[in-house]
Write a structure and sequence with these properties.
about 475 residues; mainly alpha; 24 helices; transmembrane helix; membrane; transmembrane; Tetratricopeptide repeat domain protein; TPR-like_helical_dom_sf
């Protein structure tokens, strides 16, 4: 009887189940977002209170947004807003929902939702949240080519100085980018200098990025010589591949402005090499999308240069088309991934207010046995304290993480044999791991299924396996 009474979701055990599952999801957000998404979904049916339901849906949406899965992110933020335990949390979810719509280009929807958040935070005099809601408004206006974005982002700086001065460097950074967008290059330089000085993240990569952007804005403002010290400062710092690529490109622009064609060719050739390596090493579609988007921006910048050597101009016109094709393919891959995740994760629905979840049927029995529960209160309280101090178990692999690991194992095996698997072929292997037919895989890749099959099997045979399916089967069984 005692075990039955403690078996409902309202019991300490149920609360611990939610806490442990949610902590697994949260722990994976920065390292393995695929796993974070899986565990966030797992925590949904374990949620008993509105706060827990809100937290689970909010985390699911946040992780989906990071994975460039806007459909799932929209679903999660909408449900978080519906179940929010208080109005402030509701409008924070709504503002993040607006940010998601901005990311997919639905500016009208983004603006409508963002206005709701601004109105609420202004009424509540919640200056901290209001500053971030206005920051999003500025970004929406910039995307709409509305220069009132500059006024809004100035307001963000004033608010941020009052309530979150330590992060004001990010506001300076956004305003500088907006000034560049609207062609006010001298103002961009002023605020990018402030961003460099006040940027809150002091890692070598972030500081290198701020130096590189300042150098770029100085060149746009025809202050060529002043750009060099910032390029030199960034060169000495450790940089991530995307930042290294941006630095190299900016240095190429600098040399082109100095009318040094031979050196410019060398540096831009290195940029091309860095881009190819970055794309080949991209672990997933979101990374490939980011690289392709940056490549498009880089080629656009370079093609605007009057001093760009003709040979590079012709090459970059072709490279721009290729980058656009890569971006289109990455977006298509992400759509396939989102469809797959939706199937794997199933419904992320929440119970209606005041309706018991599927897992808490025992709670109604607890009400009937209230007198027994009162007698057990002391025992339950002590049990809660002990459970609170227990460590969260080491997260176990989930199906999505296993799939990613299997694809990476295939890539590694082939790599050891000197076979570099392109991103498109990695995605073909991923679909093959899911049991898809070559006919369907070929259709997704815009080629004949037999062409895909022949290519993948050739890779496998060169690595010593009869076929790609045999390689996958072997790795699955080890």
């Amino acid at each position: 009887m005692i075990l039955w009474l403690l078996g409902g979701l309202g019991s300490p055990q149920a609360q611990t189940n939610f806490t442990e599952t949610y902590k697994k999801a949260y722990a994976f957000t920065t390292t393995q977002p695929d796993s974070a998404l899986y565990w966030a979904h797992k925590s949904l049916p374990l949620a008993y209170t509105p706060q827990q339901s809100y937290d689970a849906n909010y985390l699911l949406a946040y992780t989906a947004y990071k994975l460039c899965l806007p459909g799932l992110a929209i679903q999660g933020y909408q449900k978080a807003a519906q179940i929010a335990p208080n109005t402030t949390k509701k409008y924070k979810a709504i503002n993040n929902l607006a940010s998601t719509y901005l990311a997919i280009g639905d500016y009208k929807k983004a603006d409508s939702l963002n206005k709701q958040s601004i109105a609420y935070f202004a009424k509540q005099k919640d200056t901290y949240s209001l500053s971030y809601a206005y920051e999003l408004k500025g970004m929406i206006l910039k995307k709409q080519d509305n220069d009132s974005a500059l006024t809004v982002l100035h307001k963000v700086i004033r608010l941020r100085q009052q309530v979150d001065a330590k992060n004001i460097g990010i506001a300076y950074h956004e305003l500088a980018a907006a000034f560049v967008h609207f062609g006010l290059k001298d103002s961009a330089v002023v605020y990018q200098r402030k961003a460099l000085k006040n940027y809150p993240i002091k890692t070598p990569d972030r500081i290198a990025l701020q130096h590189t952007l300042l150098a770029k804005y100085l060149m746009f403002n025809k202050q060529i010589r002043q750009a060099l010290p910032h390029l030199q400062a960034a060169q000495k710092l450790s940089k991530r591949p995307l930042t290294e690529l941006l630095w190299c490109h900016t240095f190429g622009l600098y040399l082109s402005r100095l009318n040094a064609p031979n050196r410019t060719r060398q540096v831009f050739a290195r940029c091309d090499s860095l881009l190819v390596r970055a794309l080949a090493a991209a672990p997933d579609a979101p990374t490939r999308k980011a690289i392709s988007a940056q490549a498009i921006a880089m080629y656009d910048d370079a093609l605007k240069l009057k001093t760009l050597p003709n040979s590079i101009r012709l090459s970059y016109q072709g490279q721009l088309k290729l980058a656009q094709k890569n971006l289109k393919f990455a977006n298509k891959t992400l759509k396939l991934k989102e469809d797959y995740y939706s199937q794997q994760l199933g419904s992320v629905g929440l119970p209606r207010d005041n309706q018991p979840t599927q897992s808490n049927k025992g709670w109604q029995g607890v009400i009937v046995g209230l007198s027994v529960l009162i007698g057990l209160a002391g025992v339950a309280f002590g049990w809660r304290i002990r459970q609170r101090n227990k460590q969260v178990p080491v997260p176990t692999p989930d199906p999505i993480a296993k799939e990613n690991a299997l694809v990476m194992e295939v890539v590694h095996v082939l790599d050891t044999k000197g076979i570099k698997l392109k991103f498109i072929d990695q995605e073909a292997v991923r679909l093959l791991c899911r049991g898809e037919s070559y006919s369907k895989i070929g259709k997704e890749l815009n080629e004949k299924g037999d062409t895909t099959k022949t290519r993948l099997n050739r890779f496998a045979k060169n690595a010593g396996y009869a076929s790609m399916l045999e390689l996958i089967k072997t790795l699955r069984n080890t």
